[in-house]
Design goal:
Elements lengths: L18 H8 L8 H11 L12 H6 L5 H15 L3 H22 L5 H5 L6 E6 L2 E6 L8 E5 L7 E13 L1 H4 L5 E2 L18 E2 L4 E13 L5 H12 L6 H31 L3 H15 L4 H18 L2 E3 L4 H6 L3 E4 L11 E7 L2 E5 L10 E3 L2 E3 L5 H12 L4 E5 L2 E5 L2 H12 L4 H7 L2 E8 L4 E7 L5 E7 L1 H6 L1 E5 L4 E3 L2 H16 L3 E10 L8 H4 L3 E10 L6 H10 L3 E5 L4 H11 L8 E2 H4 L4 H8 L4 E3 L3 H13 L4 E5 L5 H6 L2 E5 L5 H6 L2 E3 L4 H42 L7 H11 L1 H8 L22 H28 L2 H22 L16 H17 L3 H7 L6 H27 L1
Parallel strand pairs: 9-23, 9-26, 19-22, 23-25, 24-25, 26-27, 27-28
Antiparallel strand pairs: 1-2, 1-3, 3-7, 4-5, 4-6, 4-7, 8-28, 10-11, 10-22, 11-12, 12-13, 14-15, 16-17, 17-18, 18-21, 19-20, 21-22
Length: 901
């Protein structure tokens, strides 16, 4: 693993140190390293590369499909069947095992590529100064102490401290998750413990230059960079997340196996004491094993999850790992990013202040739809001269462009400038004609020291006007005049007080405030520096903008509250903005946001307590996010983590269920995730949770249906062995019941329609067993009822006919009882007549086919030989059908009784 050169300073405090101190600590000047020294450092510290870590092989993925204990029980049953010559059993059981493994392998084959994707984000080449000259070297060969040359469009090759910067703005969304560009400067920062988003004198590997130029001295390479540390966190986060369902099925499988082995051993011992032939005992043992273990269970669970995958795909959710479908249904906490997930991800002007009046702005995003309202009435620039002047500055001091793609408006350039363009369009100001009337003369770009940008345009009468946008406080200090709506007047102290009050009011509403002003220039001798232009300005107005919540986000969060889910916002944005948005959409209470700098000082144990109460985290790093997820999991929560940036990837991989954004998400994040939301919409996540809960319900009722059938078979066989009568069902009968008569209806139950009230009840407790008391009591009662009816028919037929016919009648009763019971198994609480059969047409077809095959096997020689069935008169079939309804009728009456209680 590659590390940066050891230095007297830690990486955390480079931004606190002066340029001279940084140069001294790293032993380098602005002329750069010498070539021999660079080569020496490269040998000492290794190449500037992200470590890939150990990858999981295709063979390992395949072997992981056989971890389930039930699968191994089925393999053992197949081996024993092969030893005694039951070829049909062997073929049927192995087909189920292979199908289950193939489905699971297909879903997980593309996993485990997270860290490898990080390599795609590192710069292939870098421009550095060595031996006093600028040269281009492979990014893997840059070393600590190299002077990095930065220009617009460059991808940063390593973490570096800026030596100088000229209007330098960086795109750091890969690390912070925030789409706005970050203005950079070269001076030392005096504040301590700053998050990445606030380290304005640093640049980081994997980020890119939006505009401007700069020089920076590299302070960390490879795995010592912020990106490298994220790669390390991804490796440590782990990928084997044994889902709640997997854990519960494994636990249940162990109980089932030991119970089956115990019963088989006892009955086998009884047979030996009675002197039963060894072959007959082996056949009986196989029959009991087949009866005890529902062979179709692994395949049914896998198919249920696979169908869930297809259903989610239609709802804009792509599933990378099959088991993740069920995990969603167990989720108790959703940790979500703000920008682009809960919000639209587009800056929008919401309020304007000009000439002492406040205007509201409607519409979302960068599209022209919407209006400017004064006291609820739509107005335009032509009606209000001051409003037109403000719109002209927004349009004239602007380098962004708007473009419509497939009905969606997007901005090319700075998002803030794009929002101002949209606002100007709503004031009915058209850019093309504006550019013709007011051609650009020159401009002074924005820089972080001035906090302003200025564009000088030529007015129709020939004179020049400087249009200025910038931070409202510093801009106001440069103003000596104000546009009052009735003319330009000297700005009074009251005017300044009113403007400052409006700035505060907008900030309290989580709006990002921008001030606008202008100055008419005298003649052609005017200078072109900021000092010569940006003074004695005429203050025009303010624009308040923010990234608005998605319209559907509030409803989705309200639905989460109803479903007992807790939402936690984790963002790299400013704490005030994060808290305001969270309150607006219903996440946060009165508790303030917990910041990354505060998290640094909180021990893990204390964080667990804070995590149970905190709803908003701001200015956090990748490591912070992973700590938050671990704290929530330590509290017993099942955590879903959403995100789009590289800084989200470790937490996404460390969560119980990782969710990446499909549109804005980086490849690293997508590869670390279990699910990908293709529309980047929080409401889609909530819909996925609904699907996950419904799938779990379907698996639970399917499991109960299968186990009740296995219980009936086991009881029937065991009672007959104990009392010494012939076995009522042969292995082929049991296999047919488990794989076809039970298995096909079970597949229909596993893909049943989701109950409408699934999001009106709290999430399951993480430790709650899938086979609770109610589950087990219903299973046992159903098994006893079915076994009792079949046992009665078998004994009656033994007294009146031969053993083979008696077995056929008992076999028929078991088949009829099972397929009829499938209708009632669709709900644990609602009677069958309150569930429309048309919502599961597949079940109707399967039941009809099962009845048909069963009756046909009693009159067709080929089927009769295969299933070892004797002829049964049609009238007797009707009688057996009537008897087979007894278990279903009793169970449905039991539901009514429980409802009345």
């Amino acid at each position: 693993m590659n590390r940066a050169a050891a230095t007297p300073a830690t990486q955390d405090d480079w931004y606190n140190r002066s340029n001279d101190e940084v140069h001294k600590l790293l032993g380098v000047s602005l002329a750069g390293l010498s070539s021999p020294e660079a080569a020496s450092r490269l040998v000492r510290n290794g190449p500037n590369e992200i470590s890939s870590g150990e990858r999981i092989s295709v063979l390992q993925i395949f072997i992981s499909q056989f971890r389930s204990l039930i699968i191994w029980v089925l393999i053992c049953a197949a081996v024993i069947s092969a030893l005694v010559g039951e070829t049909v059993n062997v073929i049927a059981i192995m087909a189920v095992i292979i199908l289950n493994a193939a489905l699971g392998f297909y879903q997980e084959y593309s996993a485990e590529k997270s860290v490898a994707a990080l390599k795609l984000m590192t710069a292939p080449q870098a421009k550095v100064r060595r031996d006093g000259h600028a040269l281009t070297v492979p990014a893997s060969e840059v070393v600590v102490g190299d002077i990095l040359m930065l220009a617009a469009g460059d991808l940063v090759a390593a973490d570096a401290r800026l030596c100088d910067a000229a209007t330098l703005q960086m795109i750091e969304a890969t690390l912070t998750g925030e789409s706005e560009t970050v203005a950079k400067q070269a001076g030392a920062l005096t504040a301590g413990n700053l998050s990445i988003g606030d380290q304005t004198n640093m640049v980081f590997m994997g980020t890119s230059v939006a505009k401007g130029t700069g020089r920076a001295i590299i302070i960390a390479t490879g795995m010592a960079t912020e990106l490298g540390q994220i790669a390390g966190l991804i490796e440590k986060a782990g990928s084997d997340k044994g889902t709640p369902l997997q854990k519960k099925l494994d636990a249940f499988g162990r109980i089932l196996v030991w119970a089956a082995l115990g019963i088989v051993a006892v009955l086998f011992g009884l047979g030996l004491l009675r002197g039963t032939a060894l072959y007959e005992l082996a056949l009986t043992a196989i029959s009991l094993a087949v009866a005890a273990v529902p062979e179709s269970l692994p395949a049914v669970v896998t198919v249920a999850l696979s169908v869930g995958v297809m259903q989610m795909a239609r709802r804009r959710v792509l599933v990378r790992k099959l088991a993740a479908v069920e995990t969603l249904g167990s989720t108790t906490v959703i940790c979500t990013d703000k920008t682009g997930t809960l919000t639209v991800g587009e800056m929008t002007v919401r309020r304007l202040y000009v000439a002492g009046q406040s205007y509201d702005v409607t519409g979302e995003g960068y599209g022209p739809a919407g209006a400017i309202l004064l006291n609820g009435n739509a107005v335009s620039g032509s009606d209000h001269a001051s409003l037109l002047a403000l719109a002209a500055i927004h349009l004239g001091c602007n380098n962004a462009h708007l473009r419509e793609e497939a009905g969606i408006w997007k901005t090319i350039g700075d998002p803030t400038e794009g929002a101002l363009l949209t606002s100007a369009a709503k004031a009915r100001l058209e850019r093309k004609s504006f550019e013709q009337q007011y051609p650009k003369h020159f401009e002074i770009p924005f820089d972080s020291d001035r906090k302003r940008s200025t564009v000088v345009r030529r007015m129709p009468d020939g004179h020049l006007r400087a249009l200025v946008n910038g931070a409202p406080g510093p801009l106001l200090e440069k103003c000596t005049l104000i546009d009052t709506g009735t003319g330009v007047q000297p700005i009074s102290q009251q005017d300044r007080t009113d403007v400052l009050a409006e700035i505060s009011a907008m900030a309290n509403r989580a709006l990002r405030v921008l001030g606008s002003a202008y100055r008419d220039l005298d003649g052609s001798k005017t200078g072109q520096s900021a000092e010569e232009l940006e003074h004695d300005l005429v203050f025009v107005g303010l624009a308040g903008m923010y990234d608005p919540p998605r319209p559907e986000a509030r409803q989705a969060i309200a639905q989460c509250r109803m479903a007992g889910l807790r939402i936690v916002m984790i963002t790299g944005d400013h704490p005030d903005t994060a808290t305001a948005i969270a309150r607006d959409i219903g996440i946060a209470s009165d508790r303030p946001a917990l910041t990354g700098s505060e998290l640094q000082d909180i021990p893990d144990k204390d964080l667990q307590e804070r995590a149970a109460k905190t709803s908003v985290y701001a200015r956090v790093t990748a490591a912070h996010k992973l700590r938050i997820v671990h704290a929530l999991k330590a509290n017993g929560d099942v955590v879903a983590m959403t995100g789009d940036g590289v800084n989200d990837a470790p937490a996404i991989k460390g969560a119980d269920i990782g969710i990446a954004m499909g549109q804005s998400g980086t490849e690293v994040t997508k590869q670390a995730a279990d699910l990908i939301i293709t529309d980047d919409n929080f409401a889609t996540i909530v819909d996925a949770i609904k699907q996950g809960r419904g799938i779990y319900d379907n698996i639970r009722k399917t499991l109960q249906y299968l186990l009740a059938g296995s219980t009936a078979e086991l009881l029937l066989m065991a009672v007959c062995v104990v009392i010494g009568v012939p076995t009522p069902l042969l292995p082929i009968h049991l296999l047919w019941i488990n794989l076809v008569t039970d298995g096909l209806p079970a597949l229909c139950l596993a893909t049943d329609a989701i109950d409408s009230d699934v999001m009106e009840r709290p999430p399951r407790l993480p430790g709650e067993p899938i086979t609770d008391r109610g589950f087990l009591s219903t299973m046992l009662f159903t098994g006893c009822l079915t076994a009792a009816v079949a046992f009665a028919v078998f004994l009656y037929m033994l007294d009146t006919t031969d053993t083979e016919t008696a077995r056929t009648y008992a076999f028929t009763v078991m088949v009829f009882s099972e397929v009829l019971r499938a209708f009632g198994a669709r709900s644990e609480s609602r009677p069958v007549w309150r569930i429309s059969v048309l919502t599961n047409r597949n079940l109707l077809i399967v039941v009809g086919v099962s009845f048909g095959i069963q009756v046909l096997s009693q009159h067709n020689a080929v089927l009769g030989d295969l299933l070892k069935s004797s002829p049964v008169p049609f009238t007797d079939c009707l009688v057996l059908l009537a008897l087979s309804t007894i278990p279903s009728i009793v169970l449905e009456l039991g539901k009514l009784w429980r409802q009345r209680r």
